[in-house]
Amino acid sequence: MRVVPSTQAPADALLYLSAAEVAELVKAIDPVEVVAGAFLALRDGRAGITPEAALRWTAADGTAARSLILPARYAGAYGCKIINACIGNPDRGLPRAHGLIVLADPDTAAPAGILEGGLISALRTAAVSTVALRAVRELGAVRHLALLGCGRQARTHLELLAARTRLATVTVYDAVPERAAAFARAAGALVPAAGVTVADSARAAVSTAEVSIAATTTTSPYVPLEWLPRDAVFLNVSLDDATEELLLGCGYLVVDDWALVREDETRLLGRLARAGRVSGPGVPAPPGGRAVDAELATLVAGSGPGPTGSAGPVVVNPFGMGIHDIAIGAGVYAAALERGAGTWLPR
Questions:
Q1: What is the helix, strand, coil percentage profile of the chain, to 5?
Q2: Residue 205 pLDDT more than 90?
Q3: How many helices, marked H, and strands, marked E, lie in the chain?
Q4: Of 78, 270, 283, 299, which residue is least crowded by CB atoms under 10 Å?
Q5: Which domains does the chain have, with CATH numbers?
């Protein structure tokens, strides 16, 4: 997938796509299939990543802020995702995260496209969760979904899953009750056949759900093993919702990329790995610890043993890979060229 067809890109120019343009153009692709294909490309050596760069600071109001840069390549597309976030933004009436996708000409390495990245980042995150879920469960059999956190990520996850499941019950919880109530009202339009309820605690939300998705801003683990049904799937999308007990005691533990997780110093699973309490797939579990059972690329390829129904909850703990942002971004860029969308800017 070449990012810049030479006959369509003006010389010495790059294409800018706004948030509204990205939102329209992304309808031309299926993000779930793009993400699944990117996992297979990674496994086959047609895609790759480098370690992310992270800059963290404290905003003037005392809330945590950070800027992440994730370079990646995917099937002839090269670029990076820049995603910035501040936990205090929702209180300012702003999205928690803003970002850009920068695509490069594969021959000259010159910037070829700049895409608003907030939607792409949310969409690829939800697509990774959907790909992971269908690798361990039959999507059509999922009836009860719980959402912890009621922001953009929760909505994007629900949008993707609503089109691929037959949900009967959606339970939501947020630390801000008003946000949960507003989300529940909006969710009714996404899943009109399902009952949407607001739980009064995180435990109540997940205690009977077949699938729980944590999309919060917490840095303090709070979901223990005992909260989850034995056959549940817990998608730990946000930083640190799963406790050490849950990570070490679940029946099946999945990550997107073990090397990224192992080197991370921020998230709990990375800290456990660096402390010698968690080992990678195919490596014996350390004494008193456990091994990761699989990477997602292995499950997507169907080349590894999946979870058994009686072993305990499945926990999916993705780190977040720039490959998926570049893959979706390249698809959006190609659609823009085909439709003549966007604004050409001089370099």
A1: 35, 25, 40
A2: yes
A3: 11, 18
A4: 283
A5: 13-121+323-346 (3.30.1780.10), 122-320 (3.40.50.720)
Spatial CB neighbours of 75, under 8 Å, sequence gap ≥ 6: 1, 41, 46, 47, 327, 330
Those residues whose C-beta lies under 8 Å from the C-beta of residue 265, and which sit 6 or more positions away, are 271, 274
Name the 3-class secondary structure at 82. strand
| pTM of the complete model | 0.94
The predicted pLDDT at position 304 comes to 72
3-state SS assignment for residue 202: helix
Per DSSP, what are the bridge partners of residue 169?
A: 144, 195
- Condensed to tens digits (0 to 9), the pLDDT of residues 11-22 reads 789 999 999 999
Look at strands 53-58 and 64-74 and give their pairing: antiparallel
Handedness of CA 24, 26, 29, 30 (dihedral sign): negative
> In whole angstroms, how far apart are CA 327 and each of 90, 174, 275, 322, 330?
28, 31, 34, 9, 5
Instruction: Name the helix (H) or strand (E) containing 100.
Output: strand 97-104
Alpha-carbon separation of residue 162 from 187, 194, 333 (angstroms)? 10, 10, 26
* Whether the Cβ atoms of residue 103 and residue 333 lie closer than 8 Å to each other: yes
* pLDDT tens digits along 160-200: 999 999 999 999 999 999 999 999 999 999 999 999 999 99
Angstrom distance (rounded) from CA 280 to CA 272: 11
